[in-house]
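FORM 12-B: Structure-to-Sequence Request
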């Protein structure tokens, strides 16, 4: 029988791990664990059939990055192993934006935020479809992009096909079948859970999705939001875009939760919440 750990015990443990010397030890431990897991996954992938390559004429990959050049390069390498010709556009608001051969980098003012970066990258897309990724994701041979892309081509009513994110080092995933939105009077185009071309409709999917460029641009992201942009995007997309989820699309999320610099910026969300409170009401807090 598995012992239960109370939320309070988890909170105390998290505080210990994220402060003082424990943070440094935990950061190294998680970094090593993730590196070992990625190496093992890639080694095991040698025996797996490579997914069909995506044509650069059909799909563009967009990535928002901030102060994580090592993770960004790791992501680009993982993309190139699978799709050598697809165009990659990176929106970078770091102090020193990255330069990567074969990648178009959109340089933004420092700390412009996630939303401004995604909007800027999307504006550069000249293909009918795009794939959005975070900079600490990794694609593997389990990342089937060709199948959902072909589905979108054959199903004009679809606007977004979301994938599945596997978080390292614990291999946890998020259940988006129960994901909610901010308070809204908008009604979804299809009821959540119903099937379109065999895939379940969702109100929200991860930041790993293939979108129809023309329709997603109508919604886009709110530039004032440096954080919490994901829930806002899908709240505004409700009634505008038809969203489904395809479990054949899998990406690894190789994020170190003990990266102090990134977490300190990520927790500074007051300005974003002020915008959201004005838009949706005080209940959003």
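FORM 12-B RESPONSE
SEQUENCE OUT:
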């Amino acid at each position: 029988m598995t012992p239960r750990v109370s939320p309070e015990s988890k909170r105390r443990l998290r505080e210990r791990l994220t402060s003082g010397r424990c943070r440094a030890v935990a950061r190294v431990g998680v970094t090593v664990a993730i590196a070992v897991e990625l190496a093992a996954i890639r080694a095991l992938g040698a025996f797996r059939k490579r997914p069909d390559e995506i044509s650069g004429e059909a799909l563009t990959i967009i990535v928002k990055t901030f102060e994580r050049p090592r993770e960004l390069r790791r992501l680009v390498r993982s993309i190139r192993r699978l799709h050598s010709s697809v165009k990659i556009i990176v929106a970078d608001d770091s102090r020193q934006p990255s330069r990567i051969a074969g990648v178009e980098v959109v340089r933004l003012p420092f700390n412009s935020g996630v939303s401004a970066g995604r909007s800027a990258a999307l504006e550069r897309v000249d293909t009918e479809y795009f794939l959005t990724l975070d900079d600490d994701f990794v694609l593997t041979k389990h990342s089937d992009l060709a199948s959902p892309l072909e589905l979108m081509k054959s199903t004009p009513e679809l606007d977004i096909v979301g994938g599945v994110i596997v978080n390292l080092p614990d291999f946890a995933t998020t259940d988006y079948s129960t994901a909610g939105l901010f308070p809204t009077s908008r009604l979804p185009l299809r009821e959540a859970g119903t099937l379109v071309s065999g895939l379940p409709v969702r109100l929200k999917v991860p930041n790993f999705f293939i979108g129809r460029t023309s329709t997603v641009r109508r919604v886009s992201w709110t530039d004032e939001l440096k954080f919490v942009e994901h829930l806002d995007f899908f709240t505004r997309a409700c009634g505008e875009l038809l969203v489904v989820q395809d479990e054949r699309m899998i990406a690894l999320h190789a994020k170190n939760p003990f990266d102090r610099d990134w977490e300190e910026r990520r927790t500074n969300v007051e300005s974003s919440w002020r915008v959201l409170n004005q838009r949706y009401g005080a209940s959003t807090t």
